[in-house]
Write a structure and sequence with these properties.
binds protoporphyrin IX containing FE, 5-stranded antiparallel beta sheet, alpha+beta, 10 helices
């Protein structure tokens, strides 16, 4: 059904009577719809599925659920019941319009109403801003896995215990609420030190002692930065991916903690992940809005993201970024509690296969 939808064909609009118009006239615009199927550890759980749906021995060893206690400094939020749901599958739809994504969800709902033995647990929506910024106003996605090494870093190549995953990858999805009240209490300079980039241009901090003027730490940025409001096509590596820093303020920033070693993308110790997140804005009846980032990342194993979120020098000792020093100098940004998890999961993403991804797992 989804393959047809990607060609603009809606099942219920196919001609069924002799005098119906031809199928070609009933086509809709697919809006570049893409569909990604993810399989969670729950599918392999014999205590949940009796009799088992798949061979439990085929579960990739690193595929687990998001810890109930959350990660070391990134905890579950309390505003939602959604985090209590667990699913066997996740499907990510991306399209040029909201309609095309919603249509795919409703077409699945219709299949279920017709007897497909599945239940829709929940739907998370989101969108990318045209200026490529997140709700904290900084550009997000400036530094990501280089295209040339991307496949090498995210693609499963070792058949190990899960030959059905060769050619696939693993997705981490974390719906992360951002507390803008906390964020806005920081001065612009503090925000820049916490992120590690210039707020307007996205240029990285230089690895030097910041100046202190009127008791405020003033961040300093790489000169000659080619960025302005938008990110140019080839800005140069030192602007995208600054070298490993030694100044403790710079090292404590989000971009340095999330990529602490700043070494080659393909070395496993460097914990590189391919991020493809996008923003969300939800209505919370009675208390206004909830907003944040649908953090979506890919890697050939799940442990990488867990390393980033648990090793102290990385993001293990802070929620987002900031200096943990018990004796901070004036103006040093504290490790602010900015993020909490509203929903999330780790998913195996099997490779494309006929007639659907993951087919061989079910044989
Ligand atoms: C609401 C949550 C988050 C926000 C608003 C956010 C925002 C940002 C921003 C503004 C940047 C700098 C732009 C860039 O270099 O791409 C960045 C970089 C990055 N973030 Fe986050 N982030 C969030 C959560 C996370 C989480 C949970 C992780 C990992 C577990 C993460 C990993 C990274 C990485 C790896 C980089 C690139 C660092 C580099 O290589 O220079 N972020 N993020």
């Amino acid at each position: 059904m989804l393959s047809s939808l990607r060609k603009g064909v809606i099942q219920d609009l196919l001609p069924t009577r002799a005098d119906d118009p031809p199928a070609s006239e009933m086509k809709v615009t697919p809006e570049n719809l893409t569909c990604l199927l993810g399989i969670s550890s729950r599918l392999f759980d014999k205590t949940v599925h009796t009799p088992p749906l798949v061979n439990a021995d085929l579960r990739p060893p690193t595929l687990v659920s998001v810890p109930i206690r959350g990660f070391r400094s990134l905890q579950w939020g309390t505003v939602s019941d959604i985090n209590k749901t667990a699913s066997d599958f996740a499907i990510q739809f991306i399209a040029d319009t909201e309609l095309a994504v919603n249509r795919a969800i409703v077409e699945i709902h219709k299949l279920i109403l017709r007897g497909l033995p599945l239940q829709l647990e929940c739907v998370f929506s989101g969108f990318q801003r045209e200026d490529r910024r997140s709700w904290i106003d900084f550009h997000d996605g400036i530094n990501n896995l280089r295209p040339a090494l991307r496949k090498q870093v995210i693609e499963v190549t070792d058949p190990g215990d899960s030959p059905w995953m060769v050619g696939g990858t693993f997705m981490t999805f974390l719906k992360i609420a951002v507390d803008l009240q906390v964020w806005q209490k920081l001065s612009r300079s503090q925000q820049e030190l916490v992120v590690g980039r210039h707020k307007l241009t996205g240029c990285p901090l230089i690895d030097d002692l910041p100046q202190v003027i009127d008791g405020q730490v003033q961040p300093q940025f790489i000169t000659g930065c080619p960025f302005s409001g938008t990110i140019p096509a080839n800005p140069g590596e030192r602007f995208l991916d600054p070298a490993k820093a030694s100044n403790r303020l710079v090292v404590a920033s989000h971009i340095h903690r999330a990529n602490f070693n700043r070494g080659d993308d393909d070395q496993s110790a460097n914990n590189r992940i391919y991020r493809q997140g996008y923003e969300f804005l939800d209505s919370v009846p009675g208390s206004g809005i909830s907003l944040g980032l649908n953090f979506v990342s890919f890697r050939k194993d799940v442990s990488t993201i867990r390393n980033i979120l648990s090793i102290a020098d990385w993001m293990g000792s802070v929620n987002f970024g900031g200096v943990t020093n018990p004796d901070p100098i004036i103006g040093e940004p504290p490790p602010i509690p900015l993020m909490s998890i509203l929903a999330g999961g780790f998913f195996a993403i099997p490779p494309a296969e006929d007639p659907y991804p993951g087919f061989s797992l079910f044989q």
